[in-house]
Amino acid sequence: MNLSAQDHQTFFTGDTQQLKPEDTVMQKGWRERSPQARIRAAYQAIELNHECAAAYVLLAEEEAATITEAERLFKQALRSAGKDINLLVYIKRRLAMCARKLGRIKEAVKMMRDLMKEFPLLGMLNIHENLLEALLELQAYADVQAVLAKYDDISLPKSATICYTSALLKARAVSDKFSPEAASRRGLSTAEMNAVEAIHRAVEFNPHVPKYLLEMKSLILPPEHILKRGDSEAVAYAFFHLQHWKRAEGALNLLHCTWEGTAPAFRIIPYPLEKGHLFYPYPGCTESADRELLPSFHEVSVYPKKELPFFILFTAGLCSFTAMLAMLTHQFPELMGVFAKAFFSTLFAPLGFFADKMESLMPSGFWHQLTLV
């Protein structure tokens, strides 16, 4: 979920003028920064109303120590949710995720499909992304492609899950026989080119993911909230999808070859201030947001910066210095003349001393003959 505290309040307790006492308690509870304070608010709301569904949701999210316990609390919340559509959809989605984690994957897939059919407009919950992961676990690749065909549309918002799953399916079709040496000799086939382009597209959307999939960076538990195109999204995607890339023979090898070919110079992936190729330019504000979302011990991945050659930097500095001298000479000619005399006399004083020494060491008349020459 990518919900703010305000989203939690309106999503779970409604946004009406006439709130019930337990809803007032929960509104305050969602704003608490301390988990223990939120849990205390949930128990207080349950004391006011034993059928406060939002309180059971909070306890399932914050206090449950096991998935089985979370599932029990979500079922209690479902019985108390009544006709609140936001709560019903959220709870059913979480129950589907519990079933997925407990190994009841086909049951989870059915629950997700039913939710998407019953509430097609509630796309903010990204149920289709949970469905994609569950279908990948079942290795139902044709069904994965069918879901992608519906949600990987040019008019719909993208995510790391959408882009990298699309890349995985295309890579899977060719990766088991892919060889960098053979490809360099004969060139890429059409299918291989499609896979490489899909990887480029995915990396352009979120360039932080490959480091986790290739295990160049250590994975951590995903944060509670994620930021699309940020390091937090990359951590969350890799945490749940690395196993699916490993299962497809050669897929990580193809990703590595493509990543190594483009990552160092980033010739294909746009820089933050330049025009994007397939997506809008990468937003530079994600780094500060990710630092708030991710734990302090985690080294946040940042968008690769363009490195200018030293010659260009040196030339730019020299031109700027020359322009500044010209401007000062124009404005203060007498003062700059005095400065120039002092500067050059200091600069060439060692050369005069060196010439005197050389003259004392050379045969008589040498410097006169050299001057004539």
Kindly report how far apart the N and C termini lie.
86 Å
* Average of per-residue pLDDT values: 80
Q: What is the makeup of the main sheet?
A: none
Large-scale geometry: flat
Unreliable segments of 5+ consecutive residues = 262-273
Key phrases:
19 helices, mainly alpha, 0% strand, 373 residues
Overall description:
This protein has 373 residues and is an all-alpha fold. The protein has helices at residues 5-13, 21-31, 35-48, 53-62, 67-80, 85-101, 105-118, 127-137, 141-151, 160-172, 180-186, 190-205, 209-213, 231-247, 251-262, 286-293, 310-331, 333-361, 366-372. α8 (127-137) runs antiparallel to α9, α10 (160-172) runs antiparallel to α12 (190-205) and α17 (310-331) packs across α18. Residues 262-273 have low confidence and may be disordered.
Characterize this entry briefly:
The chain has 373 residues and is mainly α.
Helix and strand topology:
Elements: H1 5-13, H2 21-31, H3 35-48, H4 53-62, H5 67-80, H6 85-101, H7 105-118, H8 127-137, H9 141-151, H10 160-172, H11 180-186, H12 190-205, H13 209-213, H14 231-247, H15 251-262, H16 286-293, H17 310-331, H18 333-361, H19 366-372
